[in-house]
Write the structure tokens for this entry.
Amino acid sequence: MPTKKQTKPKAYSLLMTFNGETYTVETNDLDAALKAMKPALLHTESYVTATKGEKVSERRLSRVQTQRMFLDDVVRQVFVNNLLLN
């Protein structure tokens, strides 16, 4: 009898709004999820909401801060660590 593969729920829920669009993703790696959301052109500031269980962290980033976060791995890692969801 074949067994069903149990899928673990993802640890984080990430909601990001920029350029008038809202993107939502469930992930175990916030750094990779943020990197994957990088747009071709960024025109506006961004709003980031990360959730882990009952913990919610919201951030507003200017356009320049958002560009730095998308382009620089160190800046993105510092941003993820400052969300205080661990």
